[in-house]
Amino acid sequence: MTEKIKNIKNSKSVKKANGLMAEFKKFITRGNVLDLSVGVIMGSAFGAIVTAFTNILLSLATWGVPGGLNGLVTVLPALNSSQISPLGKEYQIITTQQFVSGIKIGDVTYNQSALSTLYNSIGGRYYYKGLAIINWGSIINAVISFIIIALVLFIILKVYTSLRNLREKRAKAKLEAYYQAHPEERPKPEVKGPTEIDLLTSINESLKILAEKEAPKKE
User: Fold this and answer.
1) Burial letters for 152-174: b for 16+ Cβ neighbours within 10 Å, e otherwise?
2) Has residue 1 got a pLDDT over 60?
3) Are residues 84 and 117 in the same domain?
């Protein structure tokens, strides 16, 4: 029985599985993976804060626009019958009151449930789904949102960089004051030796000089 267990443990499939488990364990415990996980979680939380702040600023930026930016749309004229509402051309665009109370045409009444399958709500009005509509309000909102988010991120990064530079400056000043009080502990400047390129260049020049000296002897 013990021999069988040893054979199973030493089999290629078990060794391969153990190797994969070891690689997976090494992968999930790498510092880069953990740092990336923390960054993603923090980024998601930070994104919610920026979005909420952006919505507040966007509301303030569009406060003076009557009806809000969502109502700024351009309706292109219908070019075929599929772009005309089944209720008729006069019902291409309906108001909220018409949508809620319903529309009666002859003996047929279109209630809110039926109208919801035919119309989309944009800025307090309902447009037939077959219409070609340019929603300028959504474009302006997207541009304003982008500017606000870029400005917020710029300010945050600017403040963070300034605080980091100030902290590094204070740390350097503190370290310099310590070295002035204890000059014997100041590390000596590192003397850099020649690089590989410098050595190869020097060897090449020595070989050229040696070749020039030996050239007359051969003649």
Assistant:
1) eeeeeeeeeeeeeeeeeeeeeee
2) no
3) yes
If one counts the domains in the chain, the total is 3
Residue 191, phi then psi, degrees to nearest 5: -95, 115
Does 25 score more than 90 pLDDT?
no
Strands 133-135 and 103-105: unpaired
Asked if residue 38 is part of any domain, the answer here is yes
C-alpha R_g of the chain: 38
How does pLDDT run across 27-44, given as a tens digit for each residue? 666 656 667 777 778 778
Q: CA dihedral in degrees (39, 41, 47, 53; nearest 10)?
A: -110
Task: Please give the distance of CA 98 from its chain centroid, rounded to a whole number.
Answer: 43
Is the pLDDT reported for residue 195 higher than 60? yes
Token pair 């030796």 in the structure block, residue: 193
Q: Is residue 111 part of a domain?
A: yes
Let me know whether 55 and 32 are in one domain: yes
Any idea which of 8-12, 41-45, 141-145, 195-199 has the lowest mean pLDDT? 8-12
Q: Are 102 and 109 in contact, with CB atoms under 8 Å apart? A: yes
Whether 126 and 143 map to the same domain: the answer is no
Residue-number span of the structural domain to which 84 is assigned: 77-131
pTM reported for the whole predicted model: 0.52
Which residues 6+ apart lie within 8 Å of 84 measured at CB?
78, 92, 128, 130
